[in-house]
Design goal:
single chain; mainly alpha; 19 helices; globular; disordered N terminus; disordered C terminus; transmembrane transporter activity; MFS; MFS transporter; transmembrane helix
Length: about 450
């Protein structure tokens, strides 16, 4: 960090950073480009998998199960493995995870294997995403400070959603052109390029903790992270806002069976899957560029309700264009995660970022996976329209309850964010990361929210 905290360059806490300022930071450009490559490869592979499974099984449950598989690994080891981001240099953690994941995807592309064998490799690949995402989320406040961090988070969110949108729309055509194995090979290449970019563009930093590097130390770190987050009312509320994704992500997991109700194929699936990311891109841009930092926190609860409310409209079985509009509105509301991420960063001590971010993201991904899996099972009986509407009702109820609590405590958070952080402090992140919904990083679809 080369004097970026000097008094002359310090910004007033309420000053809004521009995207140009953020892209002027070399290390951020490296993180951003690595993110773009990762997301593009993942979205292409995900469309291929969703279409392939549904075409061969004609089962909403198995399709949702495959989709949920990209979220389930954090339940098993996400919170524990995220502690690696505090015990080892974060740059090293990201590079090693990229190299290992490139190897796993290469095996998928080169070796024919049964469906469940493929699922096992996908599981391991996503599991490695937990320490990568935690490390990336934890290092971002070291790269960007103040409202630059919020602007950088917004850029990451917009990038994530834009690549999802474009990947879903173009995925069908690309898979048809290069085939399933060719698509997997492209995904492996993105991991390799990401690692190369991080080697050359991100400065090495020492590990934030000097602690026994063994499994016992990781479990203790997980326990400490849980105590940190759940023992504080503000952090508990912010992480709960991030985990609301579990409700409004359900439609994406049911896109294939939902498209079938309109008699559509891969193109319709891609259109539906792109609706929410499109709304998120628009919402994140408007929310980060035209709403002042304090007002973002004031509007956060209402926007979380907007993320769930439009889904209830699926119960009246609107035409395809109506479904696309409703899902896009839901995506726009989910931009509240930007404010949640920023507040989370402010509230979490620097030495505990990896665990706090990892816990938030792991819970987010696990909740999304569980929501999609339950939604797929319910859709077998009730149909996708009814399940999406029901997810909207449950999400709106949870968001309303959280908003009531948030409105009672947000004053202290706003006051804290208005104070300029000390030289070595980092801005806060609300969901665990600072960019999209608490999930950030590259967690295979990683629709989420956080760094």
């Amino acid at each position: 960090m080369t004097g970026r905290h000097s008094g002359r360059h310090r910004r007033p806490p309420e000053a809004q950073a521009t995207y140009r300022e953020v892209f002027a930071v070399r290390e951020f450009r490296a993180l951003w480009l690595a993110q773009v490559l990762s997301f593009v490869g993942d979205q292409l592979a995900q469309v291929a998998l969703a279409v392939l499974v549904y075409e061969h099984t004609n089962s909403a449950l198995l399709t949702a199960l495959t989709y949920a598989l990209t979220y389930v690994p954090p339940i098993v080891g996400g919170p524990v493995l995220s502690g690696l981001a505090d015990l080892f240099p974060r740059r090293t953690v990201m590079i090693v995870c990229d190299v290992l994941r490139a190897g796993l995807v290469t095996v998928m592309a080169l070796v024919a294997m049964p469906f469940w064998g493929l699922c096992a490799l996908v599981f391991l690949m996503v599991l490695l995403g937990a320490p990568f995402t935690a490390a990336r989320a934890a290092v971002l406040p070291d790269v960007l400070e103040g409202d630059r961090y919020v602007a950088g988070s917004a850029i990451n969110n917009i990038t994530h959603q834009a690549t999802q949108m474009l990947g879903f729309l173009a995925g069908g055509a690309i898979v048809a052109a290069v085939g399933t194995y060719g698509t997997l090979a492209m995904d492996a290449a993105t991991f390799v390029l990401s690692a190369v970019i991080l080697v050359g563009g991100l400065a090495p930093r020492p590990a934030s903790k000097r602690r026994e590097r063994d499994s016992l130390g990781l479990w203790r770190g997980t326990r400490d992270g849980a105590r940190l987050v759940f023992g504080d009312l503000t952090l508990r509320a912010l992480v709960s806002f991030a985990w609301l994704c579990a409700f409004y992500v359900v439609p994406e997991g049911l896109a294939a069976p939902y498209a079938a109700t309109f008699g559509g194929g891969a193109a319709t699936v891609g259109l539906l899957m792109a609706a929410m990311p499109t709304g998120m891109v628009a919402g994140a841009f408007l929310f980060s560029r035209f709403v002042r930092p304090a007002n973002r926190l004031r509007a956060m609860g209402w926007m979380s309700m907007l993320a769930c409310l439009p889904l209830i409209g699926a119960g009246v079985r609107p035409p395809l264009w109506g479904v696309v509009v409703l899902w896009a509105l839901s995506g726009a509301g989910s931009a509240y995660q930007i404010a949640a991420n920023a507040a989370y960063v402010v509230a979490v001590p620097a030495e505990g970022r990896g665990q706090a971010f990892g816990l938030a993201q792991s819970g987010l991904l696990a909740g999304q996976g569980f929501g999609i899996l339950v939604g797929g099972a319910a859709a077998q009986v009730l149909g996708p329209e009814t399940v999406v509407a029901f997810a909207g009702v449950l999400g709106l109820s949870a968001a309303t309850t959280l908003t009531v609590t948030w409105n009672q405590i947000r004053g202290g958070v706003i006051a804290a964010m208005r104070k300029e952080p000390p030289p070595d402090a980092a801005p806060a992140d609300a969901s665990g990361r600072a960019a999209r919904p608490l999930a950030a990083g590259r967690a295979v679809r990683r629709s989420a929210p956080l760094p």
